[in-house]
From TrEMBL:
Name of the protein in its database record: 3-dehydroquinate dehydratase
SUPFAM superfamilies (UniProt xref): Type II 3-dehydroquinate dehydratase (SSF52304)
NCBIfam families: aroQ, PRK05395.1-1, PRK05395.1-2, PRK05395.1-3, PRK05395.1-4
GO annotation (BP), single: amino acid biosynthetic process
Catalytic residues, chain numbering: Y22, H99
Length: 147
């Protein structure tokens, strides 16, 4: 099984970006934690980060044929991007939405997600563990659907 991890805008700054909100782990740390769990679960993962909406959309289009699902932290595009939601719907692969912070405990504009309705599920507020939980849940969900 192959899962593509997609990180949206500003997540390249993890480690130094608002550490009181997002913690001290860098994006490299997040990817390493995901890769470690992926090895344990026997799944392959790729990781991609972009600060550009179109770059994320192009990646979803390009990666979709070769993967069983996506794990997406779209950053602020979660709350704004109908285009990214359309891209994920368009490629028809299951995806899990993850957030480091608990978006529902934050500003009201973070309470809306354009991606959530099409997601298998949403995990928010557990820091790096959001990605670990997300990967586990997505892999289980995909396995259950395969006859
Ligand atoms: C985030 C939450 C978003 O609201 C924010 O814009 C981010 C990060 C998170 O992982 O907690 O960039 O997706």
């Amino acid at each position: 099984m192959k899962i593509a991890v997609v990180h949206g805008p500003n997540l390249n700054l993890l480690g130094t970006r608002e550490p009181e909100v997002y913690g001290r782990a860098t994006l490299e740390d997040v990817n390493a934690a995901v890769a470690e769990l992926a090895a344990e679960l026997g799944v392959e993962v790729t990781s991609f980060q972009s600060n550009h909406e179109g770059g994320l959309i192009d990646h979803v289009h390009a990666a979709a044929a070769g993967v069983d699902g996506f794990m997406v932290n779209a950053g602020a595009y979660t709350h704004t991007s109908i285009a990214l939601a359309d891209a994920l719907a368009g490629v028809a692969r299951p995806y899990v939405e993850v957030h480091l912070s608990n978006v529902f405990a934050r500003e009201p504009f973070r309470h809306r997600s354009w991606l959530a309705a099409g997601a298998v599920g949403v995990i928010s507020g557990f820091g790096v563990d959001s990605y670990r939980l997300g990967l586990r849940a997505l892999v289980e969900n995909i396995k259950r659907k395969v006859p």
